[in-house]
Amino acid sequence: MKIAVAGGTGTAGQYVVTAARDVGDEVTVLSRRTGVDVASGTGLARALEQVDAVIDVTNPGTLSARVATRFFTRSTARLLAAGAAAGVKHHVALSIVGIDGVEGGYYAGKLAHERAVEQSERVPYTIVRAAQFHEFPAQFLSRMPGPIAYLPTGLLRPVAAREVGEYLVRVAKREPAGRAADLVGPRDEVLADMARRYLRRAGKRQRVLELRMPGRVGRAFASGTLRGTDAALRARTDFATWLESPDSAAV
Predict the structure, then answer these.
(1) What are phi and psi of 130, to 5 degrees?
(2) Distance of alpha carbon 251 from alpha carbon 243, whole angstroms
(3) Closest CA relative to residue 62, chosen from 154, 163, 143, 132
(4) DSSP alpha helix (H) spans, 48-146
(5) What is the CA radius of gyration of the chain?
(6) CB–CB of 123/197 below 8 Å?
(7) CA quadruple 242, 167, 52, 27: dihedral, nearest 10
């Protein structure tokens, strides 16, 4: 099977690429590093030649609802149009659990991403929602390099990005289903506590303060909505185990 991974050099994308190659699939990485720009469409047509499935794990790296929405709307339209022209049989898009009604920040962009996939009739699709990654606290901390980091009050059920990558490859090999079962981690975690544990494990000195964010995004974080539901599939690796793994050291 030939799989194209949009965002294949990112946090989740690298594990999608590894998982696909581990089971013998041919992989094409859609990334600016490989000369493909999904936002502009540059290089897409050639990159998708003879591709059976596209897995979209792109991330524009912004917290702006406007920027994220524009990126996902445009890039999804280009991916689906190029996929249809190339005869792609399955489009798999990664989204986030618990974001229904959270029309703010990055989550507004992910909801726009889902709508763009659902409204297209050009390529059969499956949307996969996963919980926030174990890598999430480190990503938050990277935006606050000073001695104090302010993190939102957040109750999550984080999952290893490696397991998300493996799950996406399994889904891509199935028939398109519209929506697949959600994937979440095995344990509830508090975001600020995760950040403190990550800093200790990494040998970094930074004080973490927890603040309740206003608005819909803040309420979603604090309420535990972003844990997903009990109907979700549970991954194997909890945060404590991940912290001791090579994947944590590589963040």
Answers:
(1) -130, 160
(2) 10
(3) 143
(4) 65-86, 105-119, 136-142
(5) 18
(6) no
(7) 20
DSSP label at residue 37: B
Given a contact cutoff of 8 angstroms between Cβ atoms, the answer to whether 228 and 171 are in contact is no
**What are the tokens at 203?**
């040998």
Tokens found for residue 157 = 């059920």
Two tokens, residue 107? 């989550």
Taking residue 17's Cβ as centre, other Cβ atoms within 10 Å add up to 22
CB 54 within 8 A of CB 169: no
H or E segment at 189? strand 189-190
Q: What is the pLDDT along the chain (251 residues), one digit of tens a residue?
A: 999 999 999 999 999 999 999 999 999 999 988 899 998 999 999 999 999 999 999 999 888 999 999 999 999 999 999 999 999 999 999 999 999 988 888 999 999 999 999 998 889 999 999 999 999 999 989 888 889 999 999 999 999 999 999 999 999 999 999 999 999 999 999 999 999 999 999 999 999 999 988 888 899 989 999 999 999 999 999 999 999 999 998 88
Rama region for 180: left / alpha / beta (φ>0; ψ in -120 to 50; rest): beta
Q: In the numeric block, which tokens belong to residue 173?
A: 């090999």
pTM metric for this prediction: 0.94
CATH topology of domain 2-249: Rossmann fold (3.40.50)
3-class DSSP assignment, residue 213: coil
